[in-house]
TrEMBL record:
Name assigned to this protein: DUF6194 domain-containing protein
Pfam families hit by this protein: DUF6194
InterPro entries named in the record: DUF6194 (IPR045676)
DUF6194 domain location: 1-134
Length: 142
């Protein structure tokens, strides 16, 4: 199952990852930065998010915070008309597209391979953001 593949990959292959489970989501953060996850996995609908009909048996959505460049390459020509219940298709996140989040329901085959690559990129984006924050803290006079 691709859900187990994704969670196992993050746990075993990406360093310095912390997780938090809340509202039916599993949030993946870099280090102690618990503000913006680099990836989330939603396995059920909740009162804030029902757009993907995740209460269907076995359906889950992976949300990934990619770079602006990657986001723009993926969706340069397509701006509207998304069916957020469609399986195995990359789409702009229904709520966090402005923060360059993409999503995919139940990725399989080539889409699963791409999902892992996008998660790797998101992890690097989160690491760079964390490192910048740490550097800024160190430069700040007390």
């Amino acid at each position: 199952m691709s859900l187990q593949t994704i969670e196992q990959y993050i746990a075993e292959q990406l360093p310095n990852v912390t997780t938090l489970d809340h509202f039916g989501y599993r949030f993946f953060f870099y280090e102690t930065d618990q503000v913006l996850p680099f990836t989330t996995i939603a396995a059920s609908d909740n009162e804030y998010d029902k757009i993907s009909n995740l209460d269907r048996d076995g359906v889950f959505r992976v949300n990934i915070g990619v770079s602006k460049d990657t986001y723009n390459k993926l969706f340069a020509d397509i701006k509207t008309g998304w069916d957020y219940t469609e399986l195995n298709r990359f789409m702009p996140h229904p709520d966090y597209a402005a923060q360059y989040f993409i999503c995919v329901l139940n990725p399989e085959g080539e889409q699963l391979v791409k999902t892992i690559k996008f998660i790797e990129e998101a992890h690097l984006v989160a690491k760079n953001r964390f490192d910048r924050k740490q550097s800024a803290k160190m430069r700040k006079p007390e």
